Amino acid sequence: VLAGIFRGLDRGGEGLWLAGLLVLAITLRVGWCLAVPPVQVSDTALYFQLGEALASGGPYRIETPYPTWTRITWASWPPGLPLALAPLIWLFGANGFVPLLLNLLLISVTLVASYALTCRIADRSAARLVGLAIAASPNLVMLSGQASKELLALALVTAAAALIWDRPFRDIRAGRILLAGACQGACLLTQPAFILLPVLPAVVLWLRGDAWRQVVRALVLTIAGAVVVVAPWTARNALVLGEFVLVSTGGGSILYRANHD
Question: Which residues pair with 72 in a beta bridge?
């Protein structure tokens, strides 16, 4: 049965398959959001609120009212997703379907990058199976109307991997490695837990026994690409908070208390 499925997946041209996967992914997501209009709550509402503030030129901060006081935080939420939402909100207004529009762009990047990556490490039938899984994943489809940082992180990680793992590493141009590092830096701005991501390509090269020159090249270029993206936000934090905060202040006790006051 599996052999028959893979023979079927191997038929047809690359362009036709990719176009079909994109149409399937977009149709499922638009259909879901029309059937279940998206409502932003909890974290997604906060990210959308921050995107609105950036789009209108306002300060990047959250005000949480309590019965007797108001708590204002300036860097407790990572800025990656609000920065991605802001241009679309500026263009189309604070429309409830703006997150869907962003996520349609992100799923297109994820599909194309994962397809190309799987073709290199396996074959095109495996790439098509991966593409079908991503296009039709119920979890990804049902998140498509939400301001979800996970969908942005997924696209950025996949794009970074597709940029780096193409041919023997020594033949990859420095510009592509820097761009992959920039994607990793944007991922760090989206989810600070990815802080070690720019180091990963060098670790993989070291584990597979590549020359030290290639390991160092990967480390320097990916970190340089990430720094270009992250440094302006870190500088902003220093100006606003008066101290060094790489991305966000959401560490420490939040690991214990989560969203509890």
Answer: 63
